[in-house]
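Re: beginner question about structure tokens

> Can someone show what the tokenized structure looks like for a real chain? I only ever see the sequence side.

Sure, here's an example I had lying around. Input first:
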Amino acid sequence: MNTIKFLGTAGARFAVTRQIRKSGGMWLSLDDTNILIDPGPGSLIRCLSSKPKLNPVNLDGIILSHRHIDHSNDVNIMIEAMTNGGYKKKGVVFAPSDALDDDPVVLLHFRNHVEEIVKLEEGGSYKVGNLEFFTPILHIHDCETYGIRFQGSKTSISYISDTKYFEGIESYYNSDVLILNVVLVDSKGYINHLSISDAERIIQGTKPRIAILTHFGLSMIKAKPCNISKKISRITGCNVISASDGMLISLDE
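And the corresponding structure tokens:
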């Protein structure tokens, strides 16, 4: 089965630290390859409490879009779990250079557990398991941050991680499935996260088969993401849904 599991949908500091929604990132299973993306706080617990349980030993790799704690907090424990406590050297960890060098969130002790540590860069192309993915453009954020475009054998998936909207961003993420981190109701032009109007513009520009909103801040949660996704669907004519904690999306349908 080709699926995306949303371990948690909280975004930014207040929604995450208060656990108004759960956090923990996303588990992508595509073309017999399992990848954990942005393992924020609680990622291991969400995997083990998932129904059916997601066994970290089955992971082929872990990707950090950037080093902020709501995206990287559980990376080391997930490396430990993926490698069976370090007794089975396996998997690849992908992260921007500043998450590995400047103020490292991937601890040196755990780097020896995995087969390889790979630095993400603008315009990068990578392979893990049977899956190829790309980091097409550097985002505008408070640290080095990349979105990801996965190219499966039958399905393409884009994940637009945290960023301020910039002209032309949508041209880098044309795909069948589009996942957007929409933290804010209104960005007010100075916060480096996407807002509702930014999401509308990106979806209009990419016209995916399905667009999924996630990583909600307090303002989005109060505004009820399910209502927002319905409104964006009407405006764009695309199938737009809001992720919920533990939601499983089939990519085969």
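Each token stands for a local structural state, so reading them left to right follows the chain. The chain is about 25% helix and 25% strand.
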